[in-house]
Amino acid sequence: MRHQPRKRFGQNFLRDEGVIDSIERAIAPKHGDHVVEIGPGEGALTRAILASGCQLDAIELDRNLITGLLAAFSIHSGFTLHSADALKFDFSSIATPGRGLRVVGNLPYNISTPLIMKLLAQKSLLEDMHFMLQKEVVNRLAAGPGSKNYGRLSVMAQYYCHVIPVLNVPPGAFKPPPKVDSAVVKLVPHQTPPVDVESVNTLERVCAQAFNQRRKTIRNSLKDSLSEEEIRELGIDPTSRAEVLSLNDFATIANAVSAKEHQQEQ
User: Fold this and answer.
1) Which of 57, 80, 164, 172 has the fewest Cβ atoms nearer than 10 Å?
2) Other residues' Cβ atoms within 10 Å of the Cβ of residue 185
3) Torsions phi, psi of 149, nearest 5?
4) Are 70 and 76 in contact (CB under 8 A)?
């Protein structure tokens, strides 16, 4: 398949066979796996995945690609194509009890963060995820406290899963070449969360407040949730900025906010 990339969908099609082989080896699909490919595009990775004999559900938004994908892959009994927006797709509708979904995709920048957050919120459905993203996004996912890349996405991703950078991909591997470097990351959901959190929604809210204005101290960014003294009583310096707080720190703050809100409701 060869298709004219469309800016509307942020399309950059992977053409480098060496990179395709490296990604396929990293995913290591096998017979019996249930793989979900988001944005198969021209089907470069689709072909490599289907060669394993796995079950593959592909989700493609660009209707101009549907005919070519069906012509190329409908011969495979395990192949199903969904003409849909992955951001609105119900992944639970294709899940099989006892078998986690293995999600893969070359994600456009404009949907990468909301889609990853949507999937992480449904981590019980997943075995793992392999995504091609802007290298900057992979750096944010993997970043630790004290890094300029560390933020809300880092904290929430690491709460839900192990973040494993796999390989860097240069612009020349795509048609047309993007203006930024790309990278592949593997996300493996934790069997047990690394920290105890009473409310994940509160953790997300606290992270959003803390990182909304990175230059502010948490004394100021979290003032609507906790007072300076309440933060200090948690053993956390209220003059700290969000970027130096660990996942454990954010869990401690979130649990304190949950407890305070419960008391106020009584």
Assistant:
1) 172
2) 23
3) -85, -10
4) no
What would you measure as the largest C-alpha separation in the chain, in angstroms? 65
SS3 per-residue string spanning 99-119:
ECEEEEEECCHHHHHHHHHHH
Decide: 39 and 110 in contact? Cβ < 8 Å: no
Assigned token pair, 35: 């793989």
DSSP state of 178: P
Q: Of 158, 125, 124, which Cα lies nearest the Cα of 140?
A: 158
What per-residue confidence (pLDDT) applies to 5? 47
* Whole-structure pTM value: 0.88
CB 181 within 8 A of CB 205: no
The rounded distance, in Å, linking the Cα atoms of 47 and 56 is 10
Instruction: Give ∠ CA 87-29-36 in degrees, rounded to 5.
Output: 15
pLDDT at 160: 94
Q: Phi, psi (5° rounding) for residue 251?
A: -65, -40
Report the chain (266 residues): mean pLDDT per 10 consecutive residues.
Answer: 50 83 96 96 91 96 91 95 96 93 90 90 94 94 96 94 96 87 96 95 96 92 96 98 98 98 88
Q: Can you tell me the distance from the alpha carbon of 180 to that of 177, in angstroms, rounded to the nearest whole number?
A: 8
Which pair of structure tokens corresponds to residue 254?
Answer: 């979130």
Cα gap 35→103, rounded to integer Å: 6
Q: What does the DSSP assignment read for 219-253?
A: HHHTTTT--HHHHHHTT--TT-BGGG--HHHHHHH
